[in-house]
Amino acid sequence: MAWIEARKICKIFPGVRALSDVTLSVEKGEVHAVVGENGAGKSTLMKILGGLYSMDSGRILIDGKECEIKSIADSLRHGISVIYQELNLMPALTVAENIYISGLPGKMGCVNYRELNRRTQTLIDSLGLHIRPTDYVSALSVSQRQMVEILKALSHNSEIIIMDEPTAALNNQEVETLYGIIRRLRADGKTIIYISHRLREVFDLSDRVTVLRDGEYIGTRAIGELDERKLVEMMVGRDISQLYQYAVHPLGDMLLEIKGLSKEGVFSDVSFTLRAGEVVGMAGLMGCGREDIVKSIYGLLRHDAGSVAVNGETVDIRRPTDAIKQGIGFVTEDRKDAGIFALMTVRENITLNILRVISKFRLISAAKERELLDTYTKRMNMRYANEVQRIMNLSGGNQQKFVLARALASGCKVLILCEPTRGIDVGAKAEIYQLLSSLSEQGYAILVISSELPEIMSICYRTLVIFQGRVTGNILRDEMDENLIMRCATGGATHFSEGAML
Amino acid sequence: MRSLVKKVDFRELGIFYALIVLWLVLIVTGAPGFRQFSTYQSILQKASFMGICGVGMTLCIASKHFDQSIGSMSAFLGCTFVMLLRAFSDRPPQEQVGVTVRPDGVEYMGITWTGILAAFLITLALGVLCGLFNGVLVAKLRIPAFIATLGTLYVLRGSAYLVTDSQPYVINQQITEKQYALFKYLGTGVILGLPFSFWVMILCAVAGGIVLRKMKLGRDTLAIGNSVEASRISGVNIDKTKILVFTLLGGFVGIAAILNTCYLASENAGMLQGFEFDVITTVVLGGTALAGGKGNIFNSMSAALFFATLTVGMPLIGIGTYPQRIIQGAILLFAFSINEIRAQMESRRVKAGARRAAALKSATQP
Predict the structure, then answer these.
(1) ipTM for the assembly
(2) Residue B258: partners with Cβ closer than 8 Å, 6 or more residues away
(3) Most buried of A274, B120, B159, B312 (most Cβ within 10 A)?
C-alpha cells in the first residue's frame, strides 16, 4: 500500500503538454528518485504536489485518502514540503526567521525571539549542523541555504520531503553532507522524493526510482533491478546517438580569442579561443561564473581586465550592439524571460536584432521580414500556425529555434549558447544538436554552456571547465569523461589536454 | 484586400464591435439627442482630444510605462499657449483699456500672424520638452514612471497656475476677426461632416500606427514592453527608446492642448483634472495591457470614441453627474479586468484544444 499516490495526473501549459496521465506511487519511509531528462515533467509534477501548480485532471491520495491540493498551505497540511531548485529563502532575515516565517512564536503580533531561536537550535542540533539560528541567510553558502530549506521542511513536521535537484550547486563534500542528512531522515521514517538527473546519485541514494519522459510515465523499478544502462534507456527511450551523430568538421580560422579576462570577485584570468568549425562546451557548477564570463564577452557585463579579439583583431565590446556588429550571437539560458518576446508575433521575433538592416526609408520591410522567416523556417524546421501567431503559444523547442534564428539572422559567425536545450523535448533537442553540427560544418564557431554533461560529451569537440571563475580544464573529445569533468568543476583537479589550443 | 484580412486578427477588435453595438442601441432606441447631428459632433470632438493623447499613451503603455502627468501637462500647455498669444500682442497687457473695437463689438488687441505661429510652435516644443523631461526621469534617473509622472503632474499643474496667475483667459480678447476665425476653425470647424480636431486625431493615429507597426522605434517599444533583458541582448537602446516614447507623448499632448484651447476659446489652470485617467482608461479598454508588450492604436481610438459616447450620452439620457462618475469608475475597472478575463479564456481555450488532441490521441491508440 503506497503512502502517497498520484494517479493519472495531467497538466497542460499553453503550447506544451507537461504531464499526461502520470502516476507516482511512493512507500512510506523510502527514498524515491524521480528521474527524466529536462522537460520530462519532473519539476511540474513536484510543483503540483507542492501546491504551486494545479493539475488539470488526476487524483492524489495520501495514506489511501483522497486529498485536494490547491495551495502551498494545503500541501503543507497534508505533510508535504518541497525544496525547490531555486531556493526560496529571504536573505535579509535570519535562519530562525526563515524557518518559522509562516508561524512565528509570540503573542499579539510580537515575536518571542528567545523561543524562536530555541526551537531553531533544537532543529539544527537534530541534524548536527554548524549554523546558528541568528545567522543571516545572506551570509550562508548555497549548501547551507539548502540545509535551512530542509530544516524548514522539518519544522512543519512534514512526513514527505521533496527535493528538486538539490545537488545542482553543491561540490563533492557538500553532496556527501547532504547524503548523510537524507539517510538520517530516512532512518527517522521520513519519506523522501528525490529529483535528479545525475544517475550516480540515484544509485547511491534511492530505494526505488520512477522514470518520466516527455511528460509521460515510463515506469517504476526497485533500484536493485536496474543498472545505469537500463535506466538511461528508460529515460531516453531511444538512444540519443541514434537521433544525433557527432561528426568531426575541419577546423578553420581563429574566430574568437579571449585573453586574461577578469572581473573582480567573479572570474579571473580567463583565456580561451574558438575556431571556425568548432563546438566547444563550457562546464561548471552553478555559480562558477560561466554565465558572467560569456555575458562580459557579449557586452552585457563590464570586465575589469583582459581583451577580446574577433578574427584576430582586438575589439572593444561595450554593449550587445557592438557584439552583434562584430558577428557574435548570444542565446540566453532564460528563454522565457530574456529570450523570446512573448507577446510579439513569430515574424517580429526573428528580426529584432536587424531592424535597421531590413528597413528602407526607416520603414521596416514586411517582405524582407517574411523572406527571413521563410528562410529560417525551412532551415530549422519551425512549426507554427501563421506568421502573426504569438510566439508564447509555441512549444519550448520551437521558441528556442526562433531565439537561435534571431541570433543567426544578425549574421554572426560566433555563437554563444547558454543551456540551449533546457526545457525542450527530446525530438527538438536532437534537431538543435543537428543544427549546431551543420552550423559548425558551415564554419561557425560555437560555445555551448551546459549543465548536462551528457549533452556536452555528445556534441562538443572540446570542453572548457570553469571552477570559481577560473579555467581548470580544457579537455578534448577523446579524453572527455564525466568524472574528469566533475573533478575539474569542483576544484579537485585540472586537466589541459595536450595538443588542444586553449 | 485578402492580405489585409489575413493580417487583421478580428478577435482583437472587441472594443470596436462594442462601439458599433453601443451606437446602434442608442440610435435604434432613439435615445434623446442621438438623432441630432450636433451630438455626434461633440462626441467626436471629445474623443479626438482623448484619442490624440491616446496615440502617445498607447506607445507609452506598450513599453510597460505610463504617464499620469498628461492632464496637468495639457493644462499647462494650454495656459502657456494663451499667455504666449498675449505676450506676442502689439501692446503690453496693462494697456488693455485702449483696445480696438471689432465690428462685432468685441474688443481686441492686435497680434501678428508671426506671433500666432510662434505661439503654436513654442507650445508644441514645450510639450515635447515636458515629455523629454519625463523620459529622462524614467530612463536615466531610473525613477519608476508612476512616481516620476506623479511628480511632474504636480510641477506642471503648479506651473499652469503660475503662468496664468490663476486667472482664466479668453482667446477672443486678443485677436483680429480673421485670426479669431482661424482659432474658431481649429476648435470647432468641420470638414466633410467631421470636426477638424477629429481629422487631426486620424492623422495622429495613422502616424502613431506607422511608428508602432512599421518603424524600429515601435518594435523596440514593444520589445522592451515584453522583456527588457531580451531587448538588451538584441541590442535595443533601451534608454533612448523610453525617452523617445515619453517625448512623442509630450508632442501629442501639445497638439491636443492647442486644439482643446481653441475649442473652448478659453483656458484656465484648473482644467482637465483627471484627464490622464480618461486617456489611460481608453487605452486599456482598447486592449493594451498595462503589463506592456502589445498595443493597438486603432483599438485605442475606438475606445476613445466609446468613452466619449458615454460621457456625452449619459447626461442626454438623464443620468446625473454623480451616477456618471460611478459608471466611469465601473468602466475603468472593467477595462482593467477584461485583459485578465481574456487571458484566462484564452488559456482555457488552448488547454481545451490540447485536451481534445490528447483525447483523440488516446482514442486512436490501441
Answers:
(1) 0.82
(2) B77, B78, B81, B120, B123, B124, B186
(3) A274
